[in-house]
Design a protein that fits this description.
The protein is an alpha+beta fold. The chain has six helices and five strands. The longest helix has 6 residues. The protein is globular and about 45 Å long.
Length: 155
């Protein structure tokens, strides 16, 4: 059986378009593969501030910086954010400031290191945006120690 290749996306397909007007394929293509959204985040009860940790979700694949079970992530991980054009406004603070979905929803363009701009999946790592090699698996950290794993340079 021959597997069909996905059709190539038009360069700059995101420019001048609302997120809700993107096809499913275009929406998925916006992910740069940095892995930052897969980090455990803590919300300050008093201020509501969101703090990123270096703890990766149990489904996170540290080699690819992608979800290890993308199709079943919502069933397997309570609290996994179901990001969509309809939810981006309410979920924006949970997303890293470098996230393409967040940037576009804020009226900004994609950065030069994003693979859709650079043409290379490696530029996210070269720019220091990827969490590749900088995480610890969720199952290796006691929940009482999460606060000790807050990182300041990731936002």
């Amino acid at each position: 059986m021959v597997k069909e290749r996905a059709p190539a996306l038009r360069p700059g397909f995101w420019k001048g378009r609302a997120l809700e007007d993107l096809s499913r394929e275009e929406w998925e293509a916006l992910c740069d593969g940095c892995g930052r959204c897969c980090l455990i985040k803590l919300e300050d009860e008093d201020t509501g501030a969101i703090h990123f940790t270096d703890i990766a979700c149990r489904l996170f694949d540290p080699e690819t910086c992608r979800c290890g079970n993308y199709a079943l992530r919502f069933q397997l991980v309570k609290g996994c954010v179901r990001l969509s054009p309809d939810t981006i406004e309410q979920d924006r603070e949970w997303m890293p400031t470098t996230c393409a979905y967040r940037l576009l929803s804020e009226g900004k363009d994609l950065p030069d290191w994003h693979y859709l701009v650079s043409g290379s999946r490696e530029t996210v790592r070269e720019a220091g945006v990827s969490v590749h090699g900088r995480t610890i698996p969720e199952f290796e950290v006691d929940e009482d120690d999460y606060e000790d794993r807050i990182i300041e340079d990731i936002r």
